[in-house]
Design a protein that fits this description.
Distance between the termini: 41 Å
CATH architecture of the largest domain: 3-Layer(aba) Sandwich
Strand content: 5-15%
CATH topology of the largest domain: Rossmann fold
Mean pLDDT: 90
Shape: globular
Radius of gyration: 23 Å
Number of strands: 13
Strand order of the largest sheet: 1-13-12-2-3-8
CATH superfamily of the largest domain: HUPs
CATH class of the largest domain: Alpha Beta
Number of domains: 2
Helix content: 40-55%
Oligomer: single chain
Structural class: alpha/beta
Largest sheet: 6 strands, mixed
């Protein structure tokens, strides 16, 4: 039986090392990028002093994200630095649906995942990025009596959303709502929006560098993704010269987010561009902060970023270091559901990824040997050589053949991974990803105190 989750706080490396990293201020860029990098902070309205940064999408976060938010402030305070929060508003997670605990029936102890749904002030298509979604409206219709609200959060969430209804878009509105929903013990961290990066000279310089030699950008990006398969980063389409950029255009509620190819750049207005995830953190870590705090997923992704930037821009490009902050808090639900198969869900997802990328995981040793040989040959071939490009295409052809040949087995593993995740989510009492306002204020304040206490020994003068 898998071990049920317990409440926990993770800060890695040790907080004292975080403070050393901030004070070292080691990020640097190649000389040709230095002028635009020097203006990057001021163009984003960020302080020039040592800066600790983190961020997330424009949704009501779970406590693991709140831990990053609090840790940024606590670290900055202890290091004599400032803190900032980037709102990833070019992303598309819908902010209008909130997962909510709900009883299976009036007499049942079984708790399921329900949903509280907000409305948009005007029509909104699916998959519109948060920066282009209209503001939200929290209605006051009669609630489902089966919903469980242990902290009395729903009225406060509705009031916060409606109070911020004059915001220009849903991303700004949710950001303002989050700040008003923080417990009194947690101070707001100054926020800025990822889409504002497109208005900076540093972003423009990096885009020009991509445009001048798109193949080098793409090949180094894809090689880094290939070298870190656990990050599950999709390679760029080299044949289409796809770049790590989004093109966001269209009116509020109807905007589209499209991939950008090198051939599209000249006809695309610069202000309609936005960085994708790895490029966004690369830019911020190169020129906007001295420490970037990730959760468990972001730490894995930025291993790809580090490898990509080192290969693409060279040894003179040194991004700010990263740290990890996350937490698990459990809702005090009066139910005793069975233990969640979290280990099973993790294993099933990893098994599915292996089935996609490693023929040997499905017993096809012939294709697996060919895949390994191709990966080794790619690593050994000269950069930008015709041989390297040929080998890279051959690898993708081999994986396409593998996926066609073993389609039914891969689909079975995909279905198993989905079923395991669904099964885990069905055990609501052990879920760690409910929106933070659902948790009692005492739990959130305890999290804040634990994080601040972790940084206290290294605080200047011994203060907290």
């Amino acid at each position: 039986m898998p071990t049920p989750p317990k409440e926990s706080l993770t800060l890695e490396p040790t907080p004292s090392r975080w403070l050393d990293l901030v004070r070292e201020r080691r990020p640097r860029v190649p000389a040709w990028l230095a002028p635009s990098a020097a203006a990057f902070r001021s163009q984003l309205a960020l302080p020039e002093s040592p800066l600790v940064m983190s961020g997330h999408q424009a949704i009501l976060w779970h406590p693991g994200i709140l831990a990053k938010y609090i840790a940024a402030s606590a670290c900055a305070r202890a290091a004599g630095a400032s803190a900032a929060w980037v709102v990833v508003d070019q992303d598309t997670p819908p902010p209008h649906e909130l997962a909510w605990p709900r009883r299976a029936s009036i007499n049942s102890n079984r708790v399921l995942i329900g949903a509280q749904r907000l409305s948009y002030a005007s029509p909104c298509d699916a998959d519109v990025p948060a920066c282009a979604r209209p503001s939200l409206i929290a209605g006051t219709t009669e609630d489902d009596p089966l919903f469980i609200d242990p902290a009395g959060a729903l009225p406060r969430i509705r009031a916060a959303i409606n109070h911020a209804a004059r915001s220009p878009n849903a991303a700004a509105q949710v950001t303002r709502a989050i700040e008003s929903l923080l417990p009194p013990s947690v101070a707001p961290v100054p926020a800025f929006f990822a889409t504002s990066i497109a208005r900076t000279d540093f972003f423009a310089a990096m885009v020009r560098h991509m445009h001048a030699d798109p193949r080098r950008c793409i090949e180094t990006y894809n090689a880094a993704a290939l070298a870190h398969p656990d990050a599950d980063i999709r390679p760029l389409d080299a044949s289409a010269l796809e770049l790590p950029l989004w093109h966001i255009s269209g009116p509020l509620g109807r905007a589209t987010r499209r991939a950008v190819a090198a051939g599209d750049l000249e006809a695309t207005p610069a202000l309609e561009l936005a960085p994708r995830a790895l490029l966004m953190t690369a830019l911020l870590r190169l020129a906007a902060c001295d420490l970037f705090i990730h959760g468990t997923g972001g730490v894995t992704y930025d291993r790809v970023t580090d490898a990509w930037i080192a290969s693409w821009l060279g040894p003179d490009a040194v991004p700010a270091p990263t740290a990890l902050a996350t937490a698990t808090l459990l809702l005090p639900l009066d139910a005793a559901p069975p233990d969640p198969p979290t280990d099973e869900a993790f294993t099933a997802q990893r098994t599915y990824r292996d089935a996609l990328h490693k023929p040997g995981s499905l017993g096809d040793q012939t294709l697996e040997s060919q895949r390994r040989a191709l990966v080794e040959s790619i690593a050994a071939s000269a950069y930008r050589s015709a041989q390297r490009e040929h080998l890279y295409r051959e690898l993708h052809q081999l994986l396409a053949l593998h996926r066609e040949r073993h389609a039914s087995a891969i689909e079975a593993r995909r279905a198993a991974a989905l079923a395991a995740r669904t099964s885990a989510k069905d055990r609501a009492g052990s879920i760690r990803t409910w929106a933070f306002p659902l948790y009692p204020e005492t739990s959130l304040s305890r999290l804040r105190d634990d994080i601040h206490r972790a940084f206290t020994p290294a605080a200047p003068g011994g203060s907290s």
